[in-house]
Amino acid sequence: MEKKTKVVEEQDLEMKLYELSFHIDPNLGEEGAEKKFEKILADISKAGGKIERNEKPLLQPLAYPIAKAGRGMKEWCENSYFGSLVFETNISEMQKLETELKNDSDFLRFLIVSLTKVALSEMGKRKIERREERMEERTPPQTSSKVPVVAEALKATSEEELDKKIEEMVA
Question: I need a labelling partner for 31 at 20 to 30 A (CA). Which of 9, 49, 159, 165 fits?
């Protein structure tokens, strides 16, 4: 029984990487949404967690209306403040945060996903790739009259070298 308890305690102390995405009630306004976001950041930091990346909540239209459970009546929201953050913390602190978010009626929806360091680096790469794609769309491609001549010269040279290497390998 002691071994099982020690394993659970060790797992609880292990820091894991999480991503939290959320929708905040638009009736709070920009200042209210930012206060909620700052409180989450403060709670994670206070618990010994580390914020890897964050995106402040911005008012965005929803793809479909979301019902906000209220005092007996449902209120439908067509916009919300959407934000996300990637953070590192232990399991028990993440569970406390999840419970806190569930009990806070100002959060319309939220999702917490466990990540790996590889996933985090891939997210960063995709963000850079998207940014580069947008930049390419904005700048027209530049053409040069010398490019085809140089490319053909390189192609001819490389084909001859390849033929020689193939003959050497076959012989």
Answer: 49
Rg (CA), the chain: 27
pTM value is: 0.62
Q: What is the identity of the amino acid at 4? A: K
| Full 3-state SS string of 1-37 | CHHHHHHHHHHHHCEEEEEEEEEECHHHHHHHHHHHH
What stretches of 31-157 adopt beta strand conformation (E)? 50-69, 74-90, 107-115
Q: What is the mean pLDDT of the chain?
A: 78
Beta bridge partners of 19: 86, 113
- Distance separating alpha carbons of residues 100 and 121, to the nearest angstrom: 29
Buried b (16+ CB within 10 A) or exposed e, 71-84: eeeeeebeebbbbb
User: Measured between alpha carbons, how far is 159 from 21 in angstroms, rounded to an integer?
Assistant: 53
Please say whether the beta carbons of 19 and 115 come within 8 A: yes
Residue 148 CB coordination number (10 Å): 10
Q: For residue 7, what pLDDT band results from cuts at 50, 70 and 90?
A: very low
pLDDT tens digits for range 126-151: 655 665 666 566 554 444 444 454 45
Phi, psi dihedrals of residue 125, rounded to the nearest 5°: -65, -45
Q: What token pair was written down for 101?
A: 């978010």
